[in-house]
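Progress against Task 2.4 (sequence-to-structure conversion) is shown through the following example record, which the project officer requested during the mid-term review.
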Amino acid sequence: MCFPDKSVYPAILIAYGKIYAITPNYTNNVSIPSPGNRCECMVRIFRFAGVRPERSAAQNIAAVPNDVVTAEEARAIIARNPESFLRVSRPDAELPDISPTDDRIYERARENLLALESDGRLRKDPEPGLYVSTLNTTFFWAAKTARI
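Structure tokens generated for the chain above:
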């Protein structure tokens, strides 16, 4: 198997549910391990049943990543949109007088998540699956998009 991109970045190969690291020196000649062969791998991938928003609620539940907003910014977003997932990922925004490491913060996140599930806005997939996501990152030397 040959890779057309002779990038200096290491490659990742996913084969038979396992992730293998491939160093740049070996990207032109990669043999994919067969299911019967033992091979050291970085990570094993397992299917799981995801929890996703109901289509009609997805736009309201969708939220920015919790690490790109302050508690005050999250509080303002939640005030405008009480269905925002920030109520789960940044529960400290709802409890400003409590330390972010207090157990009551985590309990609030749990309560908010269970509320989304109990009223049907979040639903567990009926079957386990593998989910593909795109991650865009920018480093000082390059911008990369990774499909996960």
